[in-house]
Specification:
The protein is elongated. The chain has seven domains: 107 residues, Galactose-binding domain-like (Jelly Rolls, Sandwich), CATH 2.60.120.260; 163 residues, Jelly Rolls (Sandwich), CATH 2.60.120; 146 residues, Jelly Rolls (Sandwich); 171 residues, no CATH class; 167 residues, Jelly Rolls (Sandwich), CATH 2.60.120; 30 residues, Ribbon (Laminin), CATH 2.10.25; 182 residues, Jelly Rolls. Strands 12, 14, 19, 20, 21, 23, 24 and 26 form an eight-stranded antiparallel sheet that branches. It has 13 helices and 90 strands. Strand 51 and strand 52 form a beta hairpin. With 1269 residues, it is mainly beta.
């Protein structure tokens, strides 16, 4: 074959297929032409060719002809089929133009066909606009050629003269070619001139017919080793099970490639005594279709690639094998079929077997040809498909007997039906919920008869229906799938017609009762006589409509599965469906992650601290991982346990390895994506030196050796004290290197991402007497998301950024945020020769996602009810896969467009990817684009913008979009990358000022918040004292607080003044809320009583009090506001302090109020706000910097939460008491061995951290301890 070429650009003469008298001068070169005619079919043969013509015996058959001949010519292995005019116009044209016509070419032998070309009938209006191609080795069991595994039709011609050539993406190897017209010129009829291109195909074939038939190949004795082992072959079979290939290695380990239910399974057996083989992988589907399938096994070291047709799976193997053969010992899984071109490392084993080579042994019934059984199948593709056969004859015994095999993916469908004699009823056999069901209608419906289960698995299932002598039997798979019996009270016979798959005329009632059968049938028998389906095709027997005869057109749309990320694929005859439950992904193909990519993204969705799944690469291959996200900017110092090491003379080193809860790829991706990562590393020592006896390993994989320690820089061989110059011995760069008898330490944070995380720790110098050491390795903490705020600003319509071509052939997801003041512009565009993908703002309220993969442009639109050019961030998420395209804008409903079931689905692009504009520099986008991700990969807009004119890196102004997340008087503050909520003027805390600040009070608890002292106001002032006091005079208050108590009466809040005036909020003895104002020291207090009852019931109550001069409003919970008027002048003079809980200075109080103040308060106070001050928050969170004095126990709690069921439960408790700024710190010296083991969220922003497990190892012993830090 080496001298043949399969691409023939010069194989045609001119630009047309040659009509009569044009192109090749056949009359000069062909001496004779012999034509046979029989049964209305014409074929011919050229004889005695001369010169360069290699004329072979070739036959042509068509459904019917229109008065002219078809000629075939083979030139140097290139095959031409064209028309030779004897009279009239040239080309093939059947007598009837309908979709049942076909043209068949017999090439005489199997040939490698690489291209076809069509042309209309010469000098006419007859041409095809689309057609199908079928191929076969035997003239039966046709297989439709499909492009991209989906497209079945080929484009035809638009006139009678131009040639349209199609190069097959994968060459077809076949002897027979059949062309089936689909559409033609509506002003003409079917007309065709055809040209095929190809080259000869040679092969060695062996047929295995069971009975221990096999070829055994044994390697030559002696040492051998190759870098790669490759076995390749082709096989075809009609049976769905059998052992195809078996390899044996040392110690009884074997590898088998077995066909099971039409799929190839790769099985590993660990010795002959192994009970069950290990299933390594499975590949392929419907491989029992009697068509050739290509298999390659390629082993390199411990890796093995299994390829079936065009799909490959990679697995790992524990052994190397040295025996390959086609069938092992006798087994019930004998392969019945043919094998072609069996090659092992380039050696043709079939050829060796033919030549009786000593390395190849032939066993059993093996022949060196492929004897193929003829099995004619029917395909029922749609609702109009049916087959009509004559019923029983008069000579048949009473009753009816029908048998057939079928395969389908559908759960329902009518299999066959017939009428009872004299129109007395009907019999239906159909699939319902993947079970076989029989229904008989005669004077009403008889009870249904069921048989079989899960019959929609795509496998062939045999059905036998017999009704004799009052007994009816339905058998599935010869009884293995079930047998059902019935005894109808009337005879079951079919004296008219039998209908399979449907019926020529259905009543509306029947159409609603049964689903259409879509699938294949074969081996039909009526009264135990095989039905000749070729006669049916020739219209010599029965009748049919919309059938594909002599082929089974079933397609496994789940092999390979288009469902990503572990989605489970199911299918019907026309479509597949992906079940994405429990995968963490969504969409038609489980492509898009349901989780955000970082804690930063969760934060800006309004989430607070907690555990979240993050998917660092979005739709990429890395699985989601569970992390803890700390959304606050607070710093907490919680103590971690140290692990002590005692001296051991027998051990020179201790080694510990750290395993993290996340997978390696998850960990590295999270580190790379984060703005900053850190991990604490501390070494406490006493008479135990660090360098050079100790080191650690960090970074990707197993890590690299690191000799610097926490707080220092990589490669410095120093500790933090060495950089700061404050080591205990200035001659050393680490404290522990001083070898002191007292305890000392080297600790700090590792912050260089390239050396994180800590993988293992090696500690030496612990074998000397008196040596002691302890270490602590904290969890890995990362914060920020450098991708989330990656943005660019496009200030001109002609400006754009360009990136390499986007590769999203089968699935593509694109997400980004934008903000603009413009009304239109292209966000993104990538072009191919014909294909393209584009997302644009088409108007101020509409975003459009458009693309073309070869089926014509498709658009998905989302309309917003509010303008999108409001200079606020809007999120766009677009996805395109083989099933559908979808577009989502902000939180609006997703818009979708289904893809054609049998259309093109590969997106083929070749230009640069343009962002913010187009290649034509028209319709550019003006505004900001942020966090642009394509298939989970973030494009670095900022780096590209730095070197691109007209585009600026970054984009400020985030509070316009995210400011509403700041609650409870929190103030949004702009940052270079993002924003933060300033809660200093709010009584709440947390990342969005949404966390209530609550505390549990005991009778002795007192919190006193002091307003400015007089001397503070008078410093550097010449004002008189009276004017100083006037600066603390209030004409209005805005007070809010929540409480929960069972105490009655009780004082909730008390505000005093230097002028013996006061304000008190209390619960009176009648369980009602009271507000007392004494704004004139010479008069009694004015009492304002709320009408709300029973506020001391242990439930949470929220109170809001507002005063403006003499007008006061009081509101409890969300009830109606109550208004009051004061009789005093409305000024609260010289405010001194605010007290929560017990009031110690009660000399200025009225007697009854003084008694109440001395009792203190028992219960919960939460989110106390007085004008711009939050005294309870200051006491709990900022006691060291606020003018607050705490007396007695004050316990921070979540008791102020409406969801709290335990009013006084202390959660995340911190204790502060005894003095202003009551806080303490751990002392120095010996490490705290028994400290609380906990993980802390340390440095602000959005923080997530990874726990690790420590495995200790000694040099000569296995790991013996494990715990979670």
């Amino acid at each position: 074959m080496s001298h043949y070429q399969c691409t023939f650009s010069n194989a045609r003469v001119g630009n047309k297929l040659p009509p009569r008298g044009a192109g090749f001068s056949l009359r000069d070169r062909v001496r004779s032409l012999v034509i046979w005619e029989a049964l209305g079919v014409q074929w011919f043969r050229y004889l005695n060719a001369i010169h360069s013509f290699l004329l072979t015996r070739t036959y042509f058959i068509s459904s019917n002809l229109h008065g002219h001949l078809i000629h075939h010519l083979s030139i140097n292995g290139v095959f031409f089929l064209y028309s030779h005019l004897s009279a009239g116009a040239g080309g093939w044209s059947p007598l009837i133009s309908d979709k049942y016509q076909w043209l068949e070419v017999d090439l005489g032998e199997r040939t490698k066909i690489t291209a076809v070309a069509t042309q209309g009938r010469y000098g006419s209006s007859d041409w095809l606009t689309s057609y199908l191609l079928m191929f076969s080795d035997t003239g039966h069991n046709w297989k439709q050629y499909r492009q991209e595994d989906s497209i079945g039709s080929f484009p035809g011609n638009s006139n009678a003269d131009n040639v349209v050539q199609y190069k097959l993406q994968q060459p077809a190897i076949a002897r027979f070619l059949r062309l089936i017209p689909l559409d033609w010129n509506p002003s003409g009829r079917i007309g065709l001139r055809l040209e095929t291109y190809g080259c000869p195909y040679t092969s060695d074939v062996v047929s295995l017919n069971g009975g221990s038939s096999s070829l055994v190949y044994r390697l030559s004795p002696g040492p051998w080793q190759t870098s790669k082992e490759v076995v390749s072959l082709k096989f075809k079979t009609l049976r769905n099970s059998g052992i195809l290939l078996h390899a044996e290695g040392q110690q009884g380990v074997s590898l088998s490639l077995e066909l099971e239910r039409g799929k190839l399974q790769l099985l590993l057996r660990q010795g002959k005594t192994s009970p069950e083989p290990l299933h390594l992988t499975s590949l392929g589907s419907l491989l029992d279709d009697q068509h050739w399938h290509h298999v390659v096994l390629e082993q390199k070291s411990a890796h093995l690639n299994l390829t079936v047709d065009k799909n490959t799976e990679r697995v790992q193997l524990p052994k190397i094998y040295n025996i390959f053969f086609i069938k092992p010992d006798a087994s019930s899984k004998d392969l019945h079929g043919c094998i072609e071109n069996l090659l092992y490392n380039g050696f043709n084993l079939i050829e060796l077997a033919k030549n009786s080579d000593h390395q190849v042994t032939v066993r059993g019934n093996v022949t060196f040809s492929c004897a193929e059984p003829v099995s004619v199948a029917l395909t029922f593709p749609g609702p109009q498909s049916f087959l009509q056969l004559p019923g029983t004859t008069a000579s048949s015994p009473g009753g009816v007997s029908v048998g057939f095999q079928f395969r389908t993916w559908n759960k329902g469908g009518l299999l066959f039906t017939f009428s009872l004699p004299q129109q007395e009823g009907m019999v239906w056999l159909y699939l319902s919920d993947a079970r076989l069901r029989l229904m008989i209608h005669k004077s009403g419906l008889s009870p249904a008869v069921f048989s079989g289960a899960a019959l929609n698995d795509g496998q062939w299932h045999a059905v036998d229906f017999t009704a004799r002598r009052g007994r009816l039997t339905i058998s599935v798979d010869k009884g293995e799938g079930g047998i059902a019996h019935a005894a109808p009270s009337f005879p079951i016979t079919a004296e008219t017609q039998l209908f399979f798959g449907g019926k020529s005329e259905f009543s509306e009632e029947c159409r609603n009762l049964f689903e259409t059968f879509q699938g294949c049938m074969r081996l039909l028998t009526v009264e135990n006589q095989r039905v000749d389906l070729i006669k049916v095709q020739q219209r010599l027997l029965g009748n049919y409509s919309q059938l594909q005869i002599d082929m089974c057109g079933i397609i496994d749309r789940c092999s390979p599965s288009r469902c990503e990320h572990g989605g489970r694929c199911s299918q019907s005859w026309t479509v597949f469906h992906c079940n994405c439950s429990d995968t963490g992904y969504s969409g038609a193909t489980c492509h898009s992650s349901v989780y955000e990519q970082s804690c930063e993204a969760y934060k800006h969705n309004g989430n607070t601290s907690g555990h979240f799944y993050i998917d660092v690469d979005g739709s990429g291959p890395i699985k989601p991982q569970l992390v803890y996200c700390n959304m606050t900017g607070d710093t907490h110092r919680l103590t971690h346990a140290f692990t002590p090491l005692r001296p051991s003379p027998a051990v020179s080193q201790h080694s510990v390895h750290f395993d993290y809860s996340s997978q390696e790829e998850q960990l590295l991706a999270a580190i790379s994506q984060s703005e900053h990562c850190e991990q604490e590393l501390s070494y406490h020592c006493r008479k135990s030196q660090g360098s050079p006896f100790s080191w650690w390993l960090g970074g990707p994989g197993q890590g690299r050796v690191q000799t610097y320690w926490g707080g220092a820089h990589p490669g410095s061989q120093q500790c933090a004290c060495g950089l700061q110059g404050d080591c205990v011995d200035l001659q050393h760069y680490c404290n522990c290197d001083a070898d002191r008898l007292e305890w000392t330490e080297d600790s700090g944070l590792l912050t260089h991402k390239d050396t994180l995380p800590v993988r293992s720790l090696v500690l030496g110098d612990i074998q000397r007497p008196g040596s002691e050491a302890a270490y602590r390795v904290g969890p890995l903490r990362c914060h920020g998301d450098k991708n989330f705020w990656n943005a660019a600003f496009f200030d001109k319509e002609t400006s754009y950024l360009h990136f390499p071509t986007f590769h999203g052939e089968l699935s593509a997801d694109i997400s980004f945020l934008f903000k603009t003041t413009g009304s239109s512009g292209v966000f993104l565009e990538n072009l191919g020769i014909k294909d393209f993908i584009r997302i644009e703002l088409s108007s101020s309220t509409q975003v459009v996602f458009s693309f073309d993969v070869g089926n014509g442009p498709l658009e998905v639109r989302v309309e917003s009810s509010v303008p999108l050019n409001d200079n606020r961030w809007h999120r766009v998420r677009a996805e395109r896969n083989v099933k559908e395209a979808s577009l989502r804008l902000d939180e609006l409903a997703v818009a979708t467009q289904e893809a054609p079931t049998d259309g093109h689905f590969h997106l083929q692009l070749n230009s640069q990817l343009f962002i913010g504009g187009t290649a034509s520099r028209q319709k550019g986008f003006r505004g900001c684009i942020r966090s642009l991700q394509l298939n989970g990969v973030t494009l670095d807009l900022e780096e590209r913008a730095k070197i691109t004119p007209g585009v600026q890196p970054g984009c400020p102004g985030h509070c316009s979009s995210y400011g509403s997340l700041c609650q409870n008087h929190g103030r949004c503050v702009e940052r270079a990358s993002g924003f933060q909520c300033d809660c200093s003027l709010s009584a709440y805390a947390g990342v969005f000022c949404q966390t209530e600040v609550s505390a549990s009070f005991k009778p002795g608890t007192s919190v006193s918040y002091t307003f400015k002292e007089p001397y503070e106001l008078s410093r550097n002032s010449s004002a008189l004292p009276s004017s100083i006091y006037s600066e603390m005079t209030l004409r209005a208050e805005n007070i809010s607080l929540s409480f929960r108590t069972n105490q009655s009466p009780a004082l909730l809040l008390y505000v005093s003044s230097y002028y013996r005036e006061y304000l008190a909020v209390l619960i009176n003895k009648h369980d009602k809320l009271e507000v007392r104002y004494k704004l004139d020291s010479s008069r009694d207090a004015e009492v304002l009583r709320s009408s709300v009852r029973n506020v001391a019931n242990g439930q949470l109550h929220t109170v809001t009090i507002k005063r403006l001069t003499d007008s006061v409003s009081v509101q409890v919970k969300t009830l109606h506001q109550e208004d009051f008027n004061l009789t005093s002048d409305g000024e609260f003079n010289a405010v001194k302090s605010l007290v929560l809980g017990r009031v110690h200075e009660s000399d200025d109080l009225d007697p009854d109020l003084a008694k109440l103040a001395s009792l203190g308060f028992t219960g919960c106070l939460s989110v106390v706000h007085f004008n711009t001050m939050s005294p309870l928050k200051a006491a709990l969170l900022h006691s060291d910097t606020s003018p607050v004095i705490i007396t007695g126990p004050l316990v921070q709690s979540n008791c102020g939460s409406a969801a709290s069921t335990n009013p006084y439960a202390a959660e995340n408790t911190h204790h502060l008491s005894g003095k202003k700024g009551g806080s303490g710190s751990a002392g120095s010296g010996q490490p705290l061995i028994n400290a609380i083991r906990t993980d802390s969220a340390l440095i602000g922003g959005t923080v997530f951290f990874f726990k690790h497990t420590s495995l200790y190892r000694e040099p000569s012993s296995p790991c013996f301890a494990a715990f979670c830090c």
